[in-house]
Write a structure and sequence with these properties.
The protein is an alpha/beta fold. Helix content is 35%, strand content 21%. A six-stranded parallel beta sheet has the order 7-8-6-9-10-11, covered by helices on one side. It has a six-stranded mixed beta sheet with strand order 15-16-20-17-18-19, sandwiched between helices. The radius of gyration is 22 Å and the shape is globular.
Length: 445
């Protein structure tokens, strides 16, 4: 991408927008407009970079631009995006900018509905054992790819290894992005309103492999019928290696207490410290991807033996008066919350709510056997809680009030579980901010 003498519009700031602006400025962009509806705390830095900051309005979107950079939080179905596309103005993402700007690197791209963060973190930990400070982690998990490129001089250095969590919103507007190894972990209903329909959501995930070369490797989940359906509809252009928790004929599978990959025993299940069947799948995927990238089996075993999970995913916070508090802020859809509920057998006080995605609660209602009370909060708190337990629901304004209500109800042996079932955008900028706030509130009890 050539940014010199180009008129660029950035829609939405957050971490990815700021990182994209800094990288584009480094590459010579001098005519950047940021349109943002929230308060811009980085105004001083942006003004130093020559960025014009304007509110979101029809006048802004009627302007002429050479390129538009869309923050992942902006829904693809937004009318102003359609208006820009109808006029032939190219729209891209921070990931695509970073990919095209950087020298050739080794990318492992992880997408899917659930398990992305744990799997991405594990791949990074595995890569670190082989490549040290040439291993990086980012994308939808923490650090934008543009920032990784800038901080590690990837404009001039090649051959680094990057574990990249990539969301459907980041995949929608890719052009050339092409990982070396990729996976769609699973597909379950999510982001329906955001994407304009479930089919559009599932289809967007398949873009992770659309530019891959025949020698690249896509890891195919044999246990997921929706993944099977959509990979048939959108054929995979590269080498396929399968994984399964059910079928021991898959390339990567579990057999006789071992994770077996390519016919070799790699990890003993006795070495796995994290709980849940879903985590066995995450480890199996991460190990398979990392072996493809040259990591040794010994390095993989060492990491697995010491891995205790990731922040914001069924994360134990503390115990107060015999009540345990867990932060599952990463539970941004019903399937993720069901997975969290399966970790407990009784006494769960479940905190749900946040930005309204319109997800059905029908499947989740089948998994409330361990739940003592449902407390809804935030924009969708009333709808979600009442869909789950009808008039037995308690509904409050925000997360601190939900914690306060839970503490009144909880007795020794109970569990207070924040697993919202939806995204955080009604009151927080991201699930990490929501999780940090929950932990702050709990630690202040």
């Amino acid at each position: 991408m050539d940014f010199k003498n180009k008129k660029i519009l950035v829609i939405g700031l957050a971490k990815s927008g700021l990182a994209a602006i800094k990288l584009m400025h480094r590459l010579g962009a001098r005519d950047i407009t940021l349109t943002e509806k929230k308060e811009v705390k980085e105004q001083g830095l942006l003004e130093f970079l020559g960025v014009k900051i304007v509110p979101q309005s029809d006048e802004v979107f009627d302007g002429d631009y050479d390129l538009v950079v869309k923050n992942p939080g902006v829904p693809p179905v937004s009318p102003f995006l359609k208006k820009l596309k109808d006029r032939g103005i190219p729209i891209t993402t921070e990931v695509e900018i970073a990919y095209q700007a950087a020298m050739p690197q080794h990318y492992v791209a992880i997408t899917g509905t659930n398990g992305k963060t744990t799997t991405t973190t594990l791949v990074y930990e595995f890569l670190k054992t082989a490549y040290g400070n040439k291993a990086h982690v980012g994308g939808n998990i923490g650090t934008p790819l543009c920032e990784i490129v800038l901080e590690n001089n990837l404009l001039e250095e090649k051959g680094h290894y990057i574990s990249l969590e990539i969301s459907n919103a980041q995949l929608v507007d890719i052009d050339r992005f092409s990982p070396e190894t990729a996976v769609i972990i699973n597909l379950t209903p999510d982001h329906i309103d955001f994407m304009g329909g479930l089919d559009k959501y599932y289809e967007s995930k398949t873009r992770v492999y659309e530019n891959m070369m025949p020698e690249d490797v896509f890891l195919l989940n044999e246990d997921d019928p929706i993944v099977a359906e959509y990979t048939r509809k959108f054929p995979i252009p590269c080498t396929i290696k399968t994984f399964s928790l059910e079928n021991n004929t898959a390339y990567a599978h579990i057999e006789d207490g071992w994770m077996v990959i390519g016919g070799e025993k790699i990890v003993s299940l006795d070495d796995v410290k994290v709980v849940g069947r879903h985590n066995l799948q995450n480890i199996l995927i991460a190990a398979t991807a990392s072996l493809e990238e040259g990591v040794s089996p010994a390095g993989i075993r060492e990491v697995v033996q010491n891995f205790k999970g990731v922040e914001h995913r069924i994360e134990f916070v503390r115990e107060v008066d015999g009540v345990k508090y867990y932060n599952d802020s990463k539970g941004t859809n019903t399937d993720a919350t069901i997975t969290a509920l399966k970790s407990f057998d009784h006494g769960v006080i479940l905190l749900v709510g946040g930005f309204e995605k319109g997800l059905s609660m029908d499947e989740m209602k089948k998994h409330l056997g361990c739940v003592k009370q449902v407390i809804g909060y935030g924009a969708s708190g009333y709808r979600i809680a009442h869909d789950l337990v009808e008039d037995a629901a308690i509904v409050v304004k925000d997360l601190p009030a939900a914690v306060d209500e839970a503490r009144k109800i909880a007795v020794e042996g109970d569990v207070v579980l924040l697993s919202p079932t939806t995204s955080s955008f009604d009151q927080y900028s991201c699930f990490e901010e929501r999780g940090e706030h929950f932990k702050k509130v709990v630690n202040a009890l």
